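Pasting as-is:
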Amino acid sequence: MARTYREQGYWNTDVLGTWLARTPEERAGTALVTAAGSVTHEELDRRADRMAAGLLRAGLTPGDRVVVQLPNDVDLVVLSLALFRTGILPVYALPAHRTTEITHLVTTSGAVAYVCPERVLDCDFRLVAREVLDRTDSLRHVFVAGDPGPYTALSSVDGDPVALPSPDPEDVALFLLSGGTSGPPKLIPRTHADYAYQLRETARLCGVGPDSVYLAALPVEHNFALGCPGVLGTLRAGGTAVLAPAPTADVCFPLIERAGVTITSLVPPLVPLWLDAAEWTDHDLSSLRVLQVGGARLDLETARQVPKALGCTLQQVYGMAEGLLNYTRLDDPEDVIVHTQGRPLSPADEVRVLREDGSEAGPGETGELFTRGPYTLRGYYRAGERNRTRFTQEGFYRTGDLVRRTVEGNFEVVGRINDVVNRGGEKVPTLEVEEHLLAAFPLVGAAVIALPDPLMGERTCACVVPKDSAHPPTLRDVQAAFRGRGVAAYKVPDQLVVLESLPMTGVGKLDKRALRASLDA
């Protein structure tokens, strides 16, 4: 299959981060815009080369893994390009991750370095780094953007450009994170060849070129904002990427006006907030041509309002960091854009919708989505047991998503087989949350379920049976305990229900369906 992808041109000799050297006119154009200023393509290229040299001088070598957790800023893009060029592999953590998650990523990847900011809001990441160093064996370097304290300043990772290693296009280039549908997130290896194809094809499909200006409102470490086409796809096409420190309208609308943003991406909970803000804003949003929405299903009424309120085309995106991406096309009829989550990006994407008995579901019938293709992984990193259950012998990835396929080939996402709360696009693994509850409190049992939420789509509801019914934990107790355990904020339960017992099935297993029904009632 690899030979087929090469022969048919899906994979070529592209190496991520090496496509910035173009015509003099393009090199002089703006590559990055932040609230503090801008960087040209030529300057970005030069800074990436100097940081690449600095990383090698610091003792990192091709194949080393580096956990990267930086806010949307120039440092993140420069570091990413430098890592790609050296063959050192970034493991992209999310901004919300804290000690528990970073420790897991370092341990699983065998990372030798951790790159973090000095501080974001109430979190001093130098303290996170200290705890991770205490809990892991492989970590040798901590680089800090800002005041490094006892560690190394990221700004000092600099050197005169040197001859760099030449990664093979089919080598792993980066690690993305799974949604963590069962326990902590799994590592998704993406190669130069497969991710470069994703960048090329998504830019083409979305009409992104040298005149495009992409606003990264969401964290760039997410696949959506990184490469769908995101920051990397836009830069590769010669366009401009605008880096927003937060996805709120008060932060993003001024950037849209100032930079002439043409395309951006949001998760569904943010869309109504932007639509409301658009009614009273004085900022000129007329440059915006495309709003991508993905990460969870967008409700029909909100989808219909986007073109009227923002004056742009809505593009629904359904995909996964594991690979397969589906898009509504920019010229699709309104009915398709509003009611579906699009169709596959690539003609080489193979998709199957299977009923529970393994037979093919017909148009309009619900089934689980299986897929393989030129940019879909064939196995998680260091997850042998999980790979045996998530991939078929033919290499198809079991997404765990329940979908319906229309006669035209567009998908409607119905739900999930996996036990996970889709909280505004952030996937909250219920098993992990239950384990934290049981570790933090004296409980007979704990069950975490998803309940409908008008803003987030789903909220996380923790149902607990305390050992001492006279002194049950409160929601405030739970929130404090999770903070104390260094758990990402999006995993903290939104609601707490104290019960005398949890419903069980006839064979003695927890019956979450009955539990959810009892709460809905």
